[in-house]
Each structure stands twice: as structure tokens, then as C-alpha cells.
Amino acid sequence: MYRKNNGFSKRPHKLQLLSYVFIISQIVVYWLIIYWYLSSILRILGSLAFVTCNIFVIVSWFITSKIDPSDDVSIQEKKAKLSGISDGGQVSDFYCDLCDTHVSEDTKHCKQCNRCVIAFDHHCKWVNNCIGRKNYKPFIAMIVAVLCFELVFTSLSVIIMLQQSPDGENFASMIVVYISTLLSFTLLILDTNLVLFHIWLIHHGITTYDYIVRNREKKKMKTEPKIEDLEDKEEGRRFFKDATKGTEISPKVSPGIQEREGQSLIVPELSLIHISEPTRLLSISYAVFCLKKKK
Q1: Fewer CB near the terminus (10 Å): N or C of the chain?
Q2: Can you give the C-alpha Rg of the chain in angstroms?
Q3: Looking only at Cα atoms, what is the longest distance across the chain?
Q4: For residues 63 and 135, is the Cβ–Cβ distance under 8 A?
Q5: 110 bridge partner residues
Q6: Average pLDDT over residues 14-35
Q7: What is the pLDDT of residue 260?
């Protein structure tokens, strides 16, 4: 089965290619349109901020994509097997059946990349690579750099939109600026949410994968039916006609009630208990009826 080493391996993802197009288009729009509408001071300051953020985006993106986040225990054992050595000298109690190697304790197998990633966070389609312990810091640097890049681009574009109107010779140029600004602002909002989310994850010491698993467990617990501990449950009856006082019921009684031979049993002062709980299919619920002795 095919195994991906990093984000530059074969089979690029559509979102990865889209990110290339989006960043390149913003660079082109800035230097061909926005730059020429800025004042002399904004040209210097704006271009300095734009180029700096652009460099940080490209460098952090390249590092995040280039690093192989695979588990070293798995890598060394595979190399040892290829060299004819029985094991790679690594001691681990955990084993991956898919990779057919021992792995570290906090390793998860990524089905999309077909490899075990140590401290797996998530599979990022934008860089076409898994995010784990080895490339998590470059990933954080990348999304922060993108945030700054889009903030600079959006701010400079808004300045141009306030100063220029889409009429006459600059009509086509300003339409391009409007569209680019809208896309940039949308990405700015989404990336800000992503940065804040990872700050929250870091603060709580968990990964994106841990967060998803915990949420699944919480939802599963909410949909599971609760088992009520019913008082005097051995006095509950399988058959009954009525729950009112002094009504005859089936002589098949529970061990807690003494049966009188040859006589119908009269159960004194019983109240009807109804318990209704939802099932995993929320549109369906079940009901339990039982009899409980009044105090």
C-alpha cells in the first residue's frame, strides 16, 4: 500500500493546490493593483509588512509540509527489517498491525497517509500532510503567519476601497480588489478561529484528535439510556389489571411477597411508576411500568 512521506509526496490534495492558487493570486493582486493605489508612505510600510508576512507564510508552510511526522520507533524498525535485522533495537509495548511495527504509546495510524504519526493532532489537507509532534510548532507558526498576512492584505485593500470608487478606467481593477478583499476577509475569520482553537488546545494540553474523541464520547453518553435504580424492584409485577388499591392481580408474585394458597392475592396500596427514556434513535423511546409500594 502507498505510504506518504510528507506533503510533497505524490497524490496532491485539491485543497493543497487551491492554497497555492489563492496565495499566488493575492501576491499578484497586491503588486499589480493595490500597491499602485497606495500613498508613498503606505507603499513602504505596507509593502514591508506584506513581504515579511509572505516570507513567514512560505517558510513555515514549506517546513510543515516537508517534515515527516512518522513515529521514529516505526521508522527504525522498518529500516531494520529491510536490512535483514530482526528488530530495530527499540523497546515498546505497543504494536501497529497496519504498519506491522512497534510504535510509541501516543502514536496513531493515519489511514490517509498510511503511516503511524507520533502525537497525532490531525491530517491537514491544506498542506497534504499529517500534523504531529515533529511539525506541530511549524504548523502553529504557519497559521499565525497566514493570519498576519491576511490581516495586512485586507487592511490595505480596505484603504484602497475607501479612497477609490469603481468607475471609469479603474472599474475592472477595483472589482478585482473587492473580490480579493472578500475572499481574504473570509479566510481571515476562519484562520482566526483556527488559531484561537489551537491556543485553547495547547492550554488544556490536548490534541485535535483528543478533542474529537472526547466529544464523540460525550455524545455517546448522552444518547445511552440511563438505568434507574428502582426501590423495591422485587415487588414489581409482570401482569396487572389496575394499580388502584385492592385490585386483583396475577398470583405470580415476586419472592418478596408471600402467596396465599387457594386465594387471590390482594396487594395493598400500590402506585404506578412510569419511566421513559430515549434510545440511541432519538425519535424512539421506551417506557417501563412497574408497581411500587406506597410509604
Answers
A1: N
A2: 33
A3: 109
A4: yes
A5: 115
A6: 94
A7: 43
Whether 131 has a pLDDT exceeding 60, the answer reads: yes
Phi, psi of 278 (to 5 degrees): -75, 150
Q: Which residues contact 131 (CB under 8 A, 6 or more apart)?
A: 64, 69, 120, 121, 122, 123, 124, 139, 208
Distance, CA of 113 to CA of 128 (rounded, Å): 9
Q: Record the cell numbers describing residue 65, joined without a space.
A: 509540509
Reduced 3-state DSSP string for 248-264: ECCCCCCCCCCCCCCCC
Q: What share of the chain has pLDDT > 70, as a percent?
A: 73
Cell for 217? 464520547
CA angle 130, 134, 140 (to 5 degrees): 75
- In this predicted structure, the answer to whether residue 273 has a pLDDT above a threshold of 60 is no
- pLDDT attached to residue 248: 46
